[in-house]
Amino acid sequence: MIESLSLDAQNDAKSSAGDKHETALSMMHLEQEKLSFKLQEAMEHLSILQTIDINKNSSKISFGSLVKVNELTLFISVALPKIVIDDITVFAVSSESPLAKCLIGKSIGDKFDFNNKEYFIHYFD
Predict the structure, then answer these.
(1) CA distances (Å), 69 to each of 4, 5, 50, 116, 121, in order?
(2) pTM
């Protein structure tokens, strides 16, 4: 998308002049900046996700754990949009989030309170 916007801006620059042209060009540049920021953010998330050791076994919840609490399935990693895998909705939460901080260090069967609600840890991997 970034490359396409760049090409559109180049082509528009060759064929237009005036205020409309300047406004369109500015809008393309703003969109290009937004996309570049999102790309950078995605690359940072990927870099963090690649540090997860999927073969690690632990008796305590930590970064990279998949956790089932009450009706929620959480992946302690980076904040991402919800993911649906085999009809199971997984919420990827940052290990720095308040919810993850409540979970890290806990085990199956532990309970904790978050936002005035009690949670029970059913499972984690």
Answers:
(1) 43, 43, 25, 15, 5
(2) 0.70
Q: Is 95 left (phi over 0), alpha (psi -120 to 50) or beta?
A: alpha
Strands 66-69 vs 117-124: parallel, antiparallel or unpaired? antiparallel
Q: Where are the beta strands (DSSP E) in the chain?
A: 66-69, 72-77, 83-85, 88-94, 111-114, 117-124
58-103: per-residue pLDDT in tens?
A: 889 999 999 999 999 999 999 999 999 999 999 999 999 999 999 9
Question: Given this model, what pLDDT does residue 7 score?
Answer: 67
Token reading at 45? 């998330």
Query: What are the tokens at 32?
Result: 């290009």
